[in-house]
Design goal:
There is one protein chain. The protein has one helix at 2-25; strands at 77-78, 82-86, 92-93, 96-103, 109-115, 120-127, 136-143, 151-159, 166-176. The protein is an alpha+beta fold. It has a domain at 54-59 and 72-180: Immunoglobulin-like, CATH 2.60.40. The longest helix has 24 residues, at 2-25. It comes from Paenibacillus solisilvae. Pfam families: Gmad2.
Length: 184
Amino acid sequence: MHKSTAVWSYITLILLALCLGACSQNDTTPSQPAGSTGTPSNQDQTPGSSSNEPGNEPGDQPVNEGDTGGDTPKIVASNDTFQIYQPAPDSIVGQSFVVKGKARVFEATLNYSFEDGHQVLAEGFTTASMGAPEWGDFSITVKFDKPTSPTGVLTIFEASAKDGSPIHQLHIPLKFDKSLIQAK
């Protein structure tokens, strides 16, 4: 009986060694602190603004998988965290419109708010196809009631993991179709 106990001990040690060896081979990717997006926090930008910060390195730009160079959408507004393809700033929008772009946000979650200067017309959140540090595609359909002014501002932002406050805000000014504007 003593001999069988020794055999089982050796078998157990061999299995343990194999398991530990297999586990250590899969752990080759560097880790990033929780909540880190690789971009500066609390940075607000409007379309057309630029930055010479590290987040604007050529390697930090999103890569369109399967891109052959001819069908890449034009970026109409951007900051270090968001790249918007539509709507362009100062576009005329109807009672619903689509926002398309790429985001590099923690846990792939981004938020939006649409205001007309007097009231919040629409707000919500969506998820991108990938979370930071990768760029993920997203699309939002914004629907709203009648505005009370001729212009509005779409704000796309990430909610801070620390306290939920808006960070990396991108403001896109838009115009309403004249038939939508209600008198005050």
